[in-house]
Amino acid sequence: MGATVTVRDNVFAPEVATITAGESVEWRWSGQNPHNVTGDDFASPTQVSGVLDRRFDRPGTYFYRCTIHTHMLAEVVVR
Predict the structure, then answer these.
(1) 3-78 maps to CATH 2.60.40.420
(2) CA–CA dist 78, 65 (Å, integer)
(3) Residue 31: what are its φ and ψ, rounded to 5°?
């Protein structure tokens, strides 16, 4: 199943996505401002529309951000 995060104008919604190990997070762009999704070992291009999928196999907390808008911070919690 996994989780979906919307990349809106200047916010990730939700800011915390909780999934089970082996599931994926899908980021979906919505709005008009360009954003990216950048974690320690994954990154999307800067874009205004599109989708990024990433599977998380190990439990832990994975922080990510938009490098264009430094206040856009969020996390994936993998159980």
Answers:
(1) yes
(2) 17
(3) 115, -165
The domain segmentation of the chain, as residue ranges, is: 3-78
For residues 60 and 71, give the distance between their C-alpha atoms in angstroms, rounded to a whole number.
22
- Is residue 26 within 8 Å of 4, Cβ to Cβ? yes
The whole-angstrom separation of Cα 58 and Cα 46 is 26
pTM of the model: 0.95
What secondary structure letter does DSSP report for 47?
B
CA-to-CA dists, residue 15 to 1, 7, angstroms: 18, 10
Task: Using the structure block, give the residue that is written with the tokens 């974690």.
Answer: 39
pLDDT per residue as tens digits for the range 38-54: 999 999 999 999 999 99
